[in-house]
Amino acid sequence: MPPVLRSPRPDAHAARTLQQRRRARARRRQVAGRSCPLFCARRALTRTPPAPCSSADGREFAAAVVGPLSVARRRQFEAGWPLHRGFGACCDPAVFHLEGVWSVRQDPHLYAIASAVCGEKHLWNTIDRSIQKLPGQGDDAFLHFDFNPFSADQRQDSDATSGLRGKVCYTPSRFVCVPGTHSPAFLQDFAGKYAQHYPNVKPSDKKFGLAQERPDPLNLVARKRCLPVPSGCAIFWHPRLLHGQMKTPLNDPVEYGAYIGFFPAKPRPRYKAVSGIDELEDRLRSYSEGKAPVLWPSFDKVQFYPKKFDNFPHLMKAYIKKLPADHPMLATRVSPKGVTVTYLQPLALANYQPPALTPLGEESNGMCVCVYRGGEGARAQ
Fold first, then answer.
1. Would residue 289 count as lying in a domain?
2. Host domain of residue 14
């Protein structure tokens, strides 16, 4: 199990003792040496217990959220579940700026932990997807890096190696990873031993996944670990860690949560180099308009629907058939071969209002949209 860092007491934000400051420095030294690429933060994400459901519909809904699904209900959900069902994190505009997600992003306890681990006073959070993964969905073979390990430039890119990646889990979940695969020494060894088995990987590729049918010189598949993440907990990992997922067991509840991470509060040059837009400008646009950002934290492009749908039109048609002919999500484009193709486009949010941004307490008393400023900043206009 990864080491557990419990949230500090509220009064710790007002005044830290010498012992607390020493512990914080020790954690920063530990992370600087990258001896601990993974840890859990355990705390209740709800401060007060929810009121009991008073209606039959409410009780049925609560049971579907926190308990195992019947076969009939699971099939009903599968028939109407959003895009990216296999991965379990859709890219609809609505999921990026939910009030509940922002309450987690602004949580002062998680921010304090991230600040101590990263050794940074000023942090931005990642704008990422919510999680909604059905029982039976997932891919046991999906071990991947969120960068191209064969590209020396990407391995050494400080824009992508700083900060933390993570997720909060509203219902029980798990995290699959291969410990120790984040270090520069490992990555250099990996590139030397695996490049010959993946000759088609291009330097411009933004991600890389292991193929089950290819040689595995370092026995990485056998070394992977599945770490349970209880409901109400967050787990964070190093941006360079080899990680993946597994199929959610059929007798488990739906996995609900959100991806969340932190990194130093400044626009990263590579973001603009890839997308053509300044990172802060894009974050403000995403927040104010209720849309997805242009790029993920890993600098690859956000895809509203799985990219493979472009090469396998029958997968797209299965979703298109569920919509009426005049639905605003339906659009057409002309393929390179001159064929008119129907595809799906994001549905703009009606009456969208940006979620309220709350103070972070005495240590972090203001927030510039999508950015935490410990002890000084203000909300952007």
1. yes
2. 10-46+57-304
Q: What pLDDT score does 182 carry?
A: 94
Please classify residue 313 by burial: count the beta carbons closer than 10 Å to its beta carbon, then call 0-12 exposed, 13-18 middle and 19+ buried.
middle
113 inside domain:
yes
Looking at residue 311, its pLDDT comes to 82
CATH number, domain with residue 211: 2.60.120
The neighbouring-strand residues paired with 125 are 262
Cα–chain-centroid distance for residue 94?
A: 15
Residue 366 covered by a domain = no
Q: How far apart are CA 122 and CA 119, in angstroms?
A: 9
DSSP for 241-301, please give it: --EE--PPPTTSPPEEEEE--EEESS--HHHHHHHSS-HHHHHHHHHHHT---SB-TTSPB
Q: Taking all residues of the chain, what is their mean pLDDT, rounded to a whole number?
A: 81
DSSP string, 142-169: --EESS-TT-HHHHT-HHHHSSBEEEEE
Residue 373 falls within a domain, yes or no?
Answer: no
Residue in the structure block whose two tokens are 């997308």: 275
Q: What is the model's pTM?
A: 0.81
Query: Which residue is associated with the tokens 């997932």?
Result: 138
Q: Report the C-alpha gap between 199 and 212 in whole angstroms.
A: 16
